[in-house]
Amino acid sequence: MRATGVIIVLGILGIALAAGLVINYNLPLNMGDASPVQPIAFSHQLHAGDYEMPCLFCHRYTGVSRSAGIPDVELCKNCHLFVGRDKPEVKKLMGYWERREPIPWVKVHDLPDHAYFPHKMHINAEVACQVCHGDVASMAKIQRVASLKMGWCLNCHRSNNASIDCWTCHL
Q1: Are residues 143 and 29 in contact, defined by beta-carbon separation less than 8 angstroms?
Q2: How far is it, in rounded angstroms, from Cα 53 to Cα 58?
Q3: Which of 86, 149, 142, 81 is nearest to 115 (CA)?
Q4: Predicted TM-score (pTM) of this structure
Q5: Is 84 left (phi over 0), alpha (psi -120 to 50) or beta?
Q6: CA 131, CA 29: separation in Å to the nearest integer?
Q7: From its phi and psi, is residue 107 left (phi > 0), alpha (psi between -120 and 50) or beta?
């Protein structure tokens, strides 16, 4: 009788675990953390929207690295020596430059270490940045708009006839 109870409990736990994995497969991340507080209130709406700066101007490593990269303080400083010098957020930026400190940006888009995501392949396939990152040109504060979980990526690959072979994204 006792063995039957243990088997039932283990069965229920197994079903719950499997259900959790299936549910988690394609659900968005907790969108409550999709727009973290940043050390400087950088507006993509202003830079990418109003000023029409292309994504790759600031995210220079996109075509050559696993990570798109975040612009270093020097790149920002080069423009802001001449533009918006009196604005509070630009003054914060210049403070980082004067202290020779990197800006401690909080990542908004991040993938697990076991996932291999080459931006370069997506750029070469002419996948617009907005497909994964949303319309950042309209965002005063950047936020995650897609879960970037495996199921989300697989759905995109399937709908665009891209490879869904495991080795495409997992090394």
Answers
A1: no
A2: 8
A3: 149
A4: 0.73
A5: left
A6: 17
A7: beta
Q: Which of 58, 60, 80 minimizes the C-alpha distance to 137? A: 58
The mean of the pLDDT values for the chain is 83
Cα–Cα distance between 22 and 42 in angstroms, integer? 37
Q: What is the pLDDT of residue 33?
A: 56
Residue with tokens 């759905």: 155
Going by C-alpha positions, the residue among 113, 162, 136, 168 that lies closest to residue 55 is 136
pLDDT of residue 15: 61
Who has greater pLDDT, 14 or 145? 145
With tokens 């423009």, the residue in question is 79
How many C-beta atoms lie closer than 10 Å to residue 90's C-beta? 18
Per-residue pLDDT for 25 more than 60?
A: no
Contact 136, 44 (CB under 8 A): yes
Chain center to CA of 92: 24
User: pLDDT tens-digit profile of 145-154?
Assistant: 999 899 999 9
Tell me if 108 sits within 8 A of 143, measured CB to CB: yes
Q: Of residues 17 and 107, which shows the higher confidence score?
A: 107
